[in-house]
Structure formats: C-alpha cells, structure tokens
Amino acid sequence: MEITLRALITLIHGMLFGAFFLMAIYGVVVELYRSAYEEQPLKLTSKGYSLERLYLICTVGLGWAAVLTGAYIIYPW
Is residue 4 situated within a structural domain? Predict the structure, then answer.
C-alpha cells in the first residue's frame, strides 16, 4: 500500500490532531462536570497545577493544529 503526501497530511490532520483533540476535550468536560458536583474541592499541589496547565496548553495546541492544517492545507486541495 502506498500513501501519498496528501494522504499522509490528511491522516495527520484527522487521526493525530483531530482525534487527540477530541479525546482531550472530553477529558476537560468530564473534569468540569466532576468539579461542579463535588462537595469538597480537590486541593492540587503545585506540580498538579503545572500538569493541569500543561494539559490545557496541549489541548489548545491540538485544537489549533487541527484547525490550521484543515483550513490552510487540506481545504485548499
């Protein structure tokens, strides 16, 4: 089986950026839902806050990567 450059870029756009973004945003929604109905708020350590910040930055980066590759590389083809 041979994969062309366009197929590879489309695969990266959909399966890497898009799929991982959907999984990451689902994790954000679950966490927001859990924190809304929790009686005692969870106390995070400084490492926990930095990991949470890294998770959100990666989620935003995946979202923008999916949008930009779709809008400026995939769609014009």
Answer: no
Q: What are the structure tokens assigned to 1, written together?
A: 């089986």
**Count of the separate structural domains present in the chain:** 1
Reading the chain (77 residues) residue by residue, the pLDDT tens digits are: 898 999 999 999 999 999 999 999 999 999 889 888 887 877 889 998 999 999 999 999 999 999 999 999 999 88
Rg (CA), the chain: 17
How far is it, in rounded angstroms, from Cα 70 to Cα 1? Answer: 24
Task: Look up residue 17 and give its two tokens.
Answer: 């950026």
Does the residue 35 lie in any domain? yes
